[in-house]
Amino acid sequence: MGLGYEAWRETRRSLQQLLSANETTLRDDVSLRSRAFFHQSSAMMHLPSEIGDYTDFYSSRDHATNVGIMFRGKENALMPNWLRLPVGYHGRASSIVVSGTPIRRPSGQMRPDQSKPPVFGQSKQLDIELEMAFFVGGGNRLGEPIPIERAHQHIFGMVLMNDWSARDIQAWEYVPLGPFLGKNFGTTISPWVVPMEALLPFAEPNTVQDPKPLPYLCHDDAFTFNINLFVSVKGEAMKEAATICKSNFKYMYWTMKQQLAHHTVNGCNVRPGDLLASGTISGPDPDSFGSMLELSWKGSKTVDLGGGETRTFLKDGDEVTLTGGQSHYRNHDTTLLSSLQTLL
């Protein structure tokens, strides 16, 4: 990631050549193949980078509108700044884990009854957030912004991401500075990073933004990606997982180039391996909502998993699977939710 844009392209071309049917270097050398390849079933996957910093954006208009309606009403669903800039917050890099790592149900302060003082205990509204994220490659010096014209040269590749969220802890703590303990107990990403060059065939025209952003956020080239996304949940008593969400990355309002340009416009320096996430990816239809907060509409209705199983939020022992892909691209992320009692 740190070698920069041209090195990524050269490496990808070299790998494609080595793996092509007509290339003899690996194809005809049994000894070399035995050293170069490993069975995936016998491999242990790790985080693809030492993540120094992590930023989570809030770039789905449908998600931001849904949450705004729940907490502020339809008239004030979007805050005045939302259509002017990519809203985001700095998360905790130390608690980002690779797919398959168990997540503990967090404890914290909550105020379930607004007429009474807050209480302490385990979160009762544990949620998922369907996201994608990109790794920064290259970087910039402190005080030198990355212009949007060159932003693509600093976006290395993408992973699937689950931004685990304790909604009851978050609701009590977030005013006035935003997410804290309701988010930083765990974030899961897939181990495979799909390089941006592999995703370019799925680029589509960007969402028409109204009002038009300020010049430093404007770009005309297509950098919105058609990637089908799915979320399924499997309870301990269930034989098969149930799909609860069918969304698409193309629903994002702010592009990755805009996110990176805004992140650095004040001179903030980003470094190779930094992770920048999309925020929850929700679409316009109820079955495309990327969080259980939206699917259950703040717990007011249940999500049907089949066989008599329903959820408003996650139960101990639930397994959550995020899947993304198109016919030429497949990326898989499995995350486990375990109870605090089980782990201790």
From TrEMBL:
GO molecular function, one term: fumarylacetoacetase activity
Entries under InterPro entries matching the protein: Fumarylacetoacetase, Fumarylacetoacetase-like_C, Fumarylacetoacetase_C_sf, Fumarylacetoacetase_N, Fumarylacetoacetase_N_sf
Fumarylacetoacetase-like C-terminal domain location: 55-323
One of the GO biological process terms: L-tyrosine catabolic process
Annotated Ca(2+) binding sites: D56, E129, E131, D163
Pathway: Amino-acid degradation; L-phenylalanine degradation; acetoacetate and fumarate from L-phenylalanine: step 6/6
A Pfam family it matches: FAA_hydrolase
Species whose genome carries this gene: Salmo trutta
Protein name: Fumarylacetoacetase
Residues in coiled coil: none
Active site (record annotation): H63
Entry similarity comment: Belongs to the FAH family.
Binding of substrate, residues: Y58, R72, Q170, Y174, T280
Gene that encodes the chain: FAH
